[in-house]
Fold these 3 entries.
Entry 1:
Amino acid sequence: MWNTRHLLTIDSFSRSGLETILQCASILEPFSGRGNKLDICKGEILAEIFFEPSTRTEKSFQVAMHVLGGDVIIHKDAGSSRDKGENKADTIKTIEQYSDILAIRDHETGAIERYAGIVNVPVINAGDGSNEHPTQALIDMYTIWKRFNTLDSLKVAFVGSLKHYRAAHSLIKIMSKFSNNTVFGISPPGLELPDNFRINGYEDITIDMRNLNDKLAEIKPDVLYVGRVPKEYMQTNDINQCRYEINKKTLQCLPGHSIIMHPLPRVDELHPEIDSHPNVMHFMQVRHGLQTRMAVLALMLGHEKKISEISA
Ligand code: NCD
């Protein structure tokens, strides 16, 4: 499947590993609605350890494990012995004793890899600082694939702070595993993609963000990927330069088949006036979070055969 027991970075996936996720997610999709309960992960426990805020990642992992027939425990620092001064490593080692798999989020780049080194169960990176967010990118990959029926020969434009945007970092890596994709990073100066995430076919488009719509009309992306301005990782000057809004006017500048994606949460960069447009995918991504995370959990816990049995 992928070459480590943990899911820390998209680097550890091959194209065929990603295709396995797509297949498993689509097999599981009909069973992911309300009222379904499978027994693929019966008796197994996922622990979610979040040292940073989360809505979708936390809830979708929780519901995914529930639908797979497993159980979930959730750790947040407030109200835990972390308030008494317990360190993160001891908290993680403690929760490991009750769990079969851990999903961990931390504000520090590389932290999840370090935690994976101190436990004996598989670990999922649920976001490490401004580095990677591999499961969000797998969801985004599934969303793009469902819409275009391919992940090759696509033009994908990312908008915002390419420097800090962890979901984009992981999705850019995914696009590099498929063929003939062109990836643009549209940002104000100083917020370009760090060198370690650059792939063949990547191009910086450094602009004054007030000219965003004109630039989009020129490059005609198949996928426009927008994100929140991650202020918690940014300097004030950079935040001020990185203002933009995707709205009805933006839609008019894009080809009719283009989709707009946003992993949420949004603040003011995606106007609700286009929420119900069929090419605006943010809540579809939320929905696909379930199927994709069900596939990730079932595969990491060794249940590939059980997934193929439900499709038989
Ligand atoms: C993102 C994250 O936490 O990286 N959200 C998510 O997981 N869906 C996006 C963000 O915080 O801006």
Note: The CA atoms of residues 161 and 229 lie 7 Å apart.
Entry 2:
Amino acid sequence: MSGSDSSPRYVENAPLAPLTSFGLGGRARVLAQVESPGQLGAVLSKARDEQLPVYVLGGGANVLIRDDGVDGVVVQLKGGEFSRVIWNTPRVVVGAGVDMARLTIESVRRNLSGLECMAGIPGTVGGCIRMNAGGKFGQIGDVVRRVWTVDRSGCRREWKHEELGFGYRRCGLGDTIIERAELALSPSAPGAAMQRYREVWEFKRKSQPLAADSAGCVFKNPPGASAGALIDRAGMKGATVGGAVVSPEHANFIVASDGASASDVLTLIDVVRRRVADEFGVDLELEVQVWGGDGEWAARTDGLAKSESRS
Ligand code: EPU
């Protein structure tokens, strides 16, 4: 079934692999694409009525869908109000479905500083804020001034920066769904933001397999150490399970080669974690979210799949 202009677009038994940067995994019982808070409210209400869990998919850049898919409603905030960008320089109000890479380049073209650290980071604004995406050059939480959300029961709320609890690759929003956000950028000298953006982009291009099918860094960096360096020192670069490969370029990336399955990636993740634990006594925590299955596997890693992604 598909919706009219004012109703969500529903697709039953929808393949999710093409919606993720890994390009792996099974189907969603229902995929709902929404363009407005009203449509999102309708999807949440239907999911409550049918007692289905709701998963929010941004750009699919940090998720691994299990091969047997997701028994629930996967909702994507895309187009319409969720793709709107309102410039009120140096501030900007952005819908959660706005493409992060496009916003980043547009901001530096306008000689605005604050998002250069996001060069080379894929995904949507909502997804990036939800996980406080960033890297050694900074993270998006630093420029988030306000966020507007809706929770699974349909209640809307505005959050100020200091209420958002940003930390390393996390924020305190829990299960709440981001609808839009206000970012506070700052004016920079002509060309300066673009120059910085290019430097960050160049660093990534040289050190990361940006063109490969992956979900970026698989593990969070443990306190005071680098997951990539630990995996590298454990001799895991180039290790494979089926079509899943530990990137020879950056050891914290697992890339999917031809014929890879989500289960190959999950097995390789387990192998890497065990090796790093054996060699260095460090228990690596997943950064990538794993969706689907009965949650048992996720519980053995970091619980993200059930406790943060599902309602
Ligand atoms: N290193 C190795 N071998 C490797 C990879 C890295 O020895 O295979 C060493 C590097 O030489 C460096 C250290 O480990 O001394 C840290 O590596 P890098 O500078 O590449 O940064 P990172 O901590 O691995 C973080 C983010 C990246 C982000 C970069 C750059 C995490 C888990 N990763 O990587 O984010 O792009 O900084 O800002 O925080 C992501 O979140 O998906 C991601 C890729």
Note: Residues 295-311 have pLDDT under 50 and may be disordered.
Entry 3:
Amino acid sequence: MPTDDPVLLTRRDGAVLTLTLNRPQALNSFDGALHDALMAALKDAAADASVRCVVLTGAGRGFCAGQDLSDPAVAPGPQPRDIGALIESRYKPLALLLADFPVPLVAAVNGVAAGAGANLALNCDLVLAARSASFIQAFAKIGLVPDCGGTFHLPRLVGDARARALAMLALPVMAEQAASWGMIWQAIDDDALMPEAHAMAAHLATQPTHALVLTRKALRANGDLDAQLDLERDTQAEASRTPDHREGVRAFLEKRPPAFTGASS
Ligand code: T3D
């Protein structure tokens, strides 16, 4: 149900900017308005020298459920659709902006993080999650492949074997397990999440910002994120042309298990 509430909330505490995805009725999944608002707010923050740390979080019981599958702009019709263009215009620029962001990024994952929502968090420098939160590479459930940098970050964070299993089985990983696997920095008691995320962001905002950003760059130097995002776009475009993708989204919207055929086109 559409509301008049802003899809993104902003809060400033000194040098810390908190951006809260605010479509709780759809677990803060991305429609066009949220994509636009988040990119605009991040670009403004990147251009504002007084912002020295950004916290990303979600309103309600979810962090972000990835692409809004009910958005009429992307809902599958009877014909195959090619979502390579959506990846190119939305998720690739978002992942690249976060990769080169001029100040540290903290994700405060307050609840379920699924699909591109999970990978939005994994693009951040430090990921804190409420103990009740979970991370799901939900793509296989709708006949897609991980995007928004997931195929770049996930194997680096948890290793190839776990990355393959998480992406192919689309199983939820609870925050504590995610921390013990090195997917995130810390699992935190639910009611302590935001105070701890803000305390960490306030500390980071007093640190040598440019050196921290150069540290991120150096730690990621042995991988070509840009090329991997192009590969995600192309594989996602191919996956999105399959009948299984259309069936997966239909099944999600109709709240029933999908009946996949395995066909490639
Ligand atoms: O165009 C493209 O598709 C390209 C996209 C690329 C990037 C992607 O992110 S693809 C992956 C998209 N996301 C998903 O596949 C996740 C879909 N959601 C889920 O699997 C489940 O909702 C969760 C595992 C995240 C949470 O499950 P649960 O049981 O806690 O909650 P729920 O009942 O499923 O969801 C609560 C509501 O949010 C529900 O609406 P309702 O019935 O209360 O009116 C549900 O429909 C809505 N919702 C959840 N996720 C989405 C969504 N609505 C639209 N899009 C969503 N992604």
Note: The pocket of T3D is lined by residues 26-27, 29, 65-70, 74, 83, 86, 112, 114-116, 136, 138-139, 141-142, 144, 147, 252 (CB under 6 Å).
